[in-house]
Amino acid sequence: MRLDHIGIAVNSIEEALKTYQSGLGFSLADIVTIDHQKVRVAVMPLGEYSLELLEPTDPLSPIRKFLDKRGEGIHHLCFQVRNLAEKLQQLEGTSVQVLDAVPCRGLENRKVAFLHPKSTHGVLIEFVEEKQ
What we know:
Layout: E1 2-9, H1 13-23, E2 30-34, E3 39-46, E4 49-56, H2 62-70, E5 73-81, H3 84-91, E6 104-105, E7 111-115, E8 125-129
Parallel strand pairs: 1-4, 5-8
Antiparallel strand pairs: 1-5, 2-3, 3-4, 6-7, 7-8
């Protein structure tokens, strides 16, 4: 398992890019909309990893709810796993609460699943299956 990306919730990708590109010098690889997750994602490579700016596209988006409750900032940490189904099975019967018993599709159509932050000491954790 290794870090894949850090997700950062923002109200506006365009406004946030002013800071991350112009101010901090990050390059932008792509901006993608994931309709079923109600989010736009700006991907900025960071060596082997990336930063993802997450902007809600709908008032019912989980990102919108996060922003309303906590404001802009780190939303989640994402870790790559070889076999997502196997990793989720390993968590059965532990104190870790899986939010997505059936993985959904995320960026690049990769399988993803989230863990409830109440069971991971306040940190929303995402697992993403390695690219095949």
